[in-house]
Amino acid sequence: MSGKGELKNIELNEVVLTEVLELPTWLRIKRAGCNRVAIKVPWTRLKSSPVQLFVDEIQVEVELTSDAPVSTGSNPLSSFGESSYGFANRVIEGMSLYVNTVEIRFDSGVFGGSLMLSRLSVESKSPGWQSISDLRYGRIIDSNSNQLLMFKQVTWQLLRIEASAQLEPSQRSNINAPLRLITSNGKSRIAVKKSSIDGSVLGGRIQTILEDILWVATLPQVRSALAFYSHMMKLIKAAPKKRVNNHLSPQMKPSNVAAQQRSSTPNLASKAFRNFDFDQTSYHLYVGKIDLHLCDDVHAVSSGYPKDWDIDSGALQVTLIRLSIDIYPSNVAASDRLNWVRYAAPNQCSTWIQQILKSHYQLLTSRMDSNAQSRFSRIWPQLHSQNCVLRIHDVVVQCVTDANSKRDALFNLFASDRKSKASLPSDQPLIHLEFASFYHPATETMPMPPNATHLLVGPFSFLFDQRTIRWVLYVYEDINNALQSLDAPIEMDYMPKTDVRIDLLMPKIIIPLGDGRGAVRMDSRTPKRVVISMSTVLVTNCESAHSYDSCSFFKSLSSNLIDFIDDTTQLNNLNIDSFRQFIILLNQSQSVVDPSTTREKGEDRFWISTSPIWVDTDRGESSRPTPLLGDVALHALCDISSKQVNIAVQPQCRIRAVLNHFQYIQLTRLLTTISLFIDQLDADQKFFTADRSNGNLSIPIAVLCLIDQIELNIMLARGAIMSPYECRSARNEREQHPSDNSSSIVSGWFFCAIS
Fold first, then answer.
1. Is 571 exposed, middle or buried (0-12, 13-18, 19+ CB in 10 A)?
2. Please, are residues 648 and 586 in contact by the beta-carbon 8 Å criterion?
3. How far apart are CA 471 and CA 481, in angstroms?
4. Which residues contact 470 (CB under 8 A, 6 or more apart)?
5. Which residues are paired to 510 by β-bridges?
6. CB burial readout 360-374, b (16+ within 10 A) else e
7. Are 61 and 114 in contact (CB under 8 A)?
8. Averaged in consecutive runs of 10 residues, what is the pLDDT profile of the chain (755 residues)?
9. Phi/psi at 646 (nearest 5 deg)?
10. Dmax (CA) of the chain
11. Average pLDDT of the chain?
12. Which residues contact 420 (CB under 8 A, 6 or more apart)?
């Protein structure tokens, strides 16, 4: 009875292990074993010291297959009958585990891979996740509610995931890792809530914390990942359905557990227990920093690009700072969310969800009689939701670089506006995204509200970089071609209806104007950027959000507008009937017109409203801006379908613009550049989709802009304008002796109003 023992070369029964772990039918363990296991049992201190288990290496071989699983014929858990929660359970719960290496290899016949964990440890911790010298400090028991909380922490030094596609079966064991993800210094904090009477689990909270993640992926790796996903979906669909084994003991059934929790929760007496208690199961992921590098195929032949392609071995870097993902599988839909982890409630997301639920409740009750309304009002508070919250505190997306890029020419395509963000709370993330789906635990016949998605972004700045946009569209077409060639393509036809709301806070769009040419380039008054700024932008497809004011969303339309639309029948590829019907319904209330009778299947309608927008020009970040467009708010309505996109835009006030000589020159060149850029993108799309079976399916876009009045102020240049034939030295001499400029124009204005 020394308290120490050791075993070597242990082989586990793979069939029993598969059934005990309740793995899905398409996942099967082929072999599992470990080379050395040592155990240390403190017989005299079992209440305060943990039983320590040391494992050298654990190797598991997993097979992905669609064949029927092999069963032992008996339930491995049948020997576990009803028993009370006692001393032996507490000893097992307090056990500590230390593993040098865990390696799980999988093989599916076409793909092979591995998952490796090094220096894995499982230990008991205090409620504050500190090391403890006594096991009793890692458990909180409330005698009044007969519940307990226990805290475990899993740590590892290295996590490596690899996957590859091999042709020969003999080569699949030698993984060349075309897909690889490596993380270091990770940990998972697990808090479990149990019954102190029978040991049944009432809930849990799992928090996985990772430090820095670096992932470099090439386009061939992305194509391999898509092929692996397609192969997995094919196996899962072909695998037999799993039979539900009702082997849980009566005290572990969800109904009894929920009843026990409801009866005991109001009687909580322990202050420490209340401080760390939680009333629902949740899963959390925190990552300090993620560096993603998407690279072009360096071995691609030149024939795979258009003739004017100027991006050699392009690469795009995305940096995510402080990423957090929170999942709540079962949450009361009408709850206040005050018990959510690191969540400030109420906020825009929670308020909007409550508005959706209220609108859905009113819609359903309006179609019921009084008796049905009474029954429905009793079961409505039991509505539950599955929620996922994604938050990113900072995002930096750099412009695409290639082999010829220089360090001083690197710019950010997307980044947070730190100057504007300083006026907001310091803990507000740059991106806040929430998903919510609804269900009722007691009935499946009740009409459920549609899924809800809310995105809040800002403040941020976006740089209109033509090379990056062109390269991103090339990547999109490459991935789209890979999806078209899959054996089991990703199905998007069964996407449920989702209410979407997007809030952009203080967005800023920067459009470079270039340095110009000749005299304009040397003149210090020539702008180099157009900056479009606004306070808020709202985009939503939620009909309940705009049905009450749809008549006022657009101001009264002209009676001859339809005649104008009918005169545009000569436009190619444009469905005039669809656009005409879209214009007719602009001013009609949704309560009068049923959307299902006026829209085609798969058509989405989005309302867009902005705060006042203002446009300036400047010569750089620290230069003084020059006004170009005054404050003007916009309302827009967009109908999106697979055949055509119809857009209507209407300013809410008079458009006022101020234009000087140098702005006019640069804007004229900008319009020419954008026109050429659009033609270039169209040519690229035709080139990359030439080999696709469905060809180039371009969707026509019809835009109607309803402008009431335009006020244009043309300002003449102040001072002399340099001649294109004048050299730089003469320019400098003129600036030093302004009195010699006898022919210079002091200033001038020209006003024009269009109604």
1. exposed
2. yes
3. 15
4. 311, 677, 680, 681, 684
5. 463, 531
6. bbeebeeeeeeeeee
7. no
8. 82 80 81 92 89 93 79 56 74 92 86 88 94 91 88 93 66 54 89 89 93 86 81 79 49 41 48 88 94 81 79 92 96 91 91 91 89 90 95 96 82 90 84 95 87 94 95 90 69 73 96 68 81 95 61 66 70 75 69 47 82 93 90 92 88 92 91 93 88 68 87 80 56 52 48 61
9. -110, 130
10. 110
11. 81
12. 458, 459, 506, 508
pLDDT in tens, 10-42: 888 888 787 777 778 888 888 899 999 999 999
Tens digits of residue pLDDT in 485-513: 775 555 555 567 899 999 999 999 999 99
Euclidean distance between CA atoms 104 and 747, whole angstroms: 77
In the numeric block, the tokens 């005990």 are attached to 20
Amino acid at 163: A
CA angle, residues 276, 277, 278, in degrees to nearest 5: 125
Residue 169 backbone zone (phi > 0: left; psi -120 to 50: alpha; other: beta): alpha
628-to-625, 657, 662, 691, 712 alpha-carbon distances in Å: 9, 6, 11, 45, 10
| Length of the chain, in residues | 755
Euclidean distance between CA atoms 338 and 351, whole angstroms = 13
Three-state secondary structure string covering 325-366 = EEEEEEEECCCCCCCCCCCCCCCHHHHHHHHHHHHHHHHHHC
- Residue 163's CB: how many other CB atoms inside 10 A? 21
HSE-up (13 A, CA, CB side) for residue 24: 13
Token pair 């996590």 in the structure block, residue: 159
According to DSSP, the β-strands at 412-416 and 460-463 are: antiparallel
Six-digit token string for 225: 């990942």
Place of tokens 């494992």: 55
| Cα–Cα distance for residue pair 453/596, rounded to 1 Å | 22
- The CA-atom distances, in angstroms, between 635 and each of 73, 462, 638, 648 are 66, 21, 10, 8
